[in-house]
Amino acid sequence: MALESTDVFVVQKQTGGKENRKLSFQQLQEALGSGPAVVFKGVLNMTSSATQPSDPAAGDLYINDTAGTFAWTTGDGYTGQVQVDARAIWSGTGWSVSNPPSGDIGVEVVQATLPVTVDSTDASQPIVGVNAAVTTVAGDGTVTTQSIGVVTIATDANVAAGDDNLVVTSKQLAATNQAISEAGGGTVTNVTGTAPIQVATGTSTPVVSITEASSSAFGSVKLIDSGLASPDTASTTLATVPKYIADFYLVKDFSSLTDIADA
After folding, report:
1. Could you give the CA distance from residue 99 to residue 96 in angstroms, rounded to a whole number?
2. Beta strands per DSSP E along the chain
3. How many CB atoms lie within 10 A of CB 97?
4. How far apart are CA 201 and CA 212, in angstroms?
5. Residue-wise pLDDT tens for the chain (263 aa)?
6. Were both Cys, which of 20, 53, 163, 219 would link to 211 (CB 3.0–4.6 Å)?
7. Residue 245 contacts by C-beta under 8 Å, 6 or more apart in sequence?
8. What distance in Å separates the CA atoms of residue 153 and residue 166, rounded to the nearest whole number?
9. Is pTM, for the whole model, over 0.70?
10. Which stretches of 48-107 are DSSP H helices?
């Protein structure tokens, strides 16, 4: 037969005179703090007030099936958000709610700022990556594409080949600086000229020259031989000198000539 609340037990005190006393079953329940048993009542949508149990008993337990704002307002219990599988138990005066651990802790969303990337195809196991740094240069030297990202260290062979989108180490840069220093401070990459200066044979071993002068352009000239026995009347490119003129041509001011009486 089940015990009734008025049934009594006989107990002996362990202090004082150690008298025998009676104890009702109800008093024993209260002393042990035992309340009504927890009873699972089912799965409901706790974000809808329409699903709220109308006359819950203390100990009634429900499990939530929809994430959102808790909408059961009877009593003085929980207010806030509920996750799927949250538990709500009626205390007698209000709802006591506990969300599952996954609703209280842990990362829910992983976001990224370039150059970092996130592949959230599998939301529970997102893949975090990073873009490569890229610079694209057109044939005229104009930068057409430039993006921030991770870089790859160039090998000595990459440096020698001038490969794109690689970075050099301080050791490689020091070797380059040393080579420049030993070459006299630098290497000429391009030589051009303005008339009458002209440049030929590429840029690594340029040949610089001066064009010959003409009646319509500046340039270099060759002097006429001042030791000729007779005047050169055929040349159209040789430049004369004062001695050549004095030997073969009259001066403009005849008074400067030597007097015949002194010859």
Report:
1. 10
2. 8-12, 20-24, 39-44, 60-64, 68-69, 81-82, 87-90, 95-98, 116-119, 127-130, 134-137, 143-147, 197-200, 207-210, 222-223, 238-239
3. 21
4. 19
5. 567 878 888 888 888 888 888 888 777 766 665 555 788 999 999 999 999 998 888 888 999 999 999 999 866 678 889 999 999 998 888 888 988 875 445 666 788 888 899 998 887 788 999 988 887 777 776 767 778 888 889 898 998 888 888 888 999 889 888 887 777 665 667 788 888 888 887 666 788 888 888 878 888 888 888 778 788 878 878 888 888 877 777 777 777 777 777 76
6. 219
7. none
8. 6
9. no
10. 101-104
- Tokens 């004062």: give the residue: 242
Structure tokens at 211: 């064009």
CB 64 within 8 A of CB 98: no
Q: Which long-range contacts (CB under 8 A, 24 or more apart) does 163-168 make?
A: 164/135, 164/136, 164/137, 165/132, 165/133, 165/134, 165/135
Place of tokens 């009626």: 90
Query: Could you tell me the two tokens for 126?
Result: 């997102």
